[in-house]
Design brief:
22% of the residues lie in helices and 27% in strands. By secondary structure, it is an alpha+beta fold. It has 2 domains: 4-56, Structural Genomics Hypothetical 15.5 Kd Protein In mrcA-pckA Intergenic Region, Chain A (Roll), CATH 3.10.290.10; 65-228, Pseudouridine synthase. Strands 7, 8, 9, 10, 13, 14, 15, 16 and 17 form a 9-stranded mixed beta sheet that branches. Helix 1 crosses helix 2. It is elongated and about 75 Å long. The structure holds uracil. Uracil binds at residues 104-105, 108, 189-192, 205.
Length: 246
């Protein structure tokens, strides 16, 4: 592990926020290789002995956020009682405490976020933050302009009216019709039910974007770690702006 600021290491070891950790250092409770630590110093926890009140610190691993292109046929659940393949079965070495951020239906493919940061997962799916999700839908038949307009304004489902949505026809001669749908709600099978409400069956559904994260050319079944820039955007979207090193 490279040298890191001591207050950041202490924060990761559970000594409060970085500001709180600074107070622990300023109080003279921290030593590095037996010598009293000073504010602003850097240390390497792999090669140096860092102690608070004479006890070695234990550093928690950094959180991990993963972008997965979920194939159809895979279930978004921790354990499937019918023994079907889950998203955790197709991830290589998922870290402990990894949880999915909202669900996709078994028959829906595309971008699924997973994270070890519980607060981030909670906020990204909380209606208060209205995180935008974009889907590409293939629907049977020709969708009339009037139906597109209804979908944009909101349609009545059995669990209430849907919030306004962005719905655009994608290039291609209908039928079938290809559409892009962006919503901030996350109700069960929402996009499929929205189209059923205007008389069209969705034959294929793929999520291409979750907030600032795009699926791009990630292959079905493949996953990647979210970049620091993507993570910073996700965090600030839900009021968890990461403090950066100075
Ligand atoms: N809407 C759906 O109908 N299914 C999903 O998996 C996600 C959104």
């Amino acid at each position: 592990m490279p040298l890191e600021r001591l207050q950041k290491l202490l924060a990761r070891a559970g000594y409060g926020s970085r500001r709180g950790a600074e107070l622990v250092i300023a109080a003279g409770r921290v030593t590095v290789d037996g010598a009293p630590a000073v504010l602003g110093m850097r240390a390497d926890p792999d090669t140096q002995r860092i102690e608070v009140d004479g006890e070695p610190i234990r550093i928690q691993p950094d959180d991990v956020t993963i972008v997965l292109n979920k194939p159809t046929g895979i279930v978004v659940t921790a354990v499937d009682d019918r023994g079907r393949q889950t998203v955790f079965d197709i991830l290589r070495d998922p870290p402990p405490h990894l949880r999915y951020v909202g669900r996709l239906d078994r028959d829906t493919s595309g971008l699924l976020l997973l994270t070890t940061n519980g607060e981030l997962a909670h906020r990204l799916t909380h209606p208060r933050y209205e995180v935008m999700k974009t889907y590409e839908a293939t629907v049977d038949g020709i969708v009339a302009d009037e139906s597109l307009q209804r979908l944009r304004l909101g349609v009545m489902l059995e669990d209430g009216m849907t919030a306004p949505a962005t719905v655009e026809q994608l290039p291609g001669m209908p039928p079938p019709t290809y559409l892009s749908v962006t919503i901030h709600e996350g109700r069960n099978r929402q996009v499929r039910r929205m189209f059923e409400a205007v008389g069209h069956h969705v034959s294929r559904l793929r999520r291409t974007r979750f907030g600032p994260i795009a699926l791009d050319d990630l292959a079905p079944g493949a996953s990647r770690v979210a970049t620091p820039a993507e993570l910073a955007k996700l965090m600030s979207l839900v009021g968890l702006a990461e403090r950066t090193e100075v």
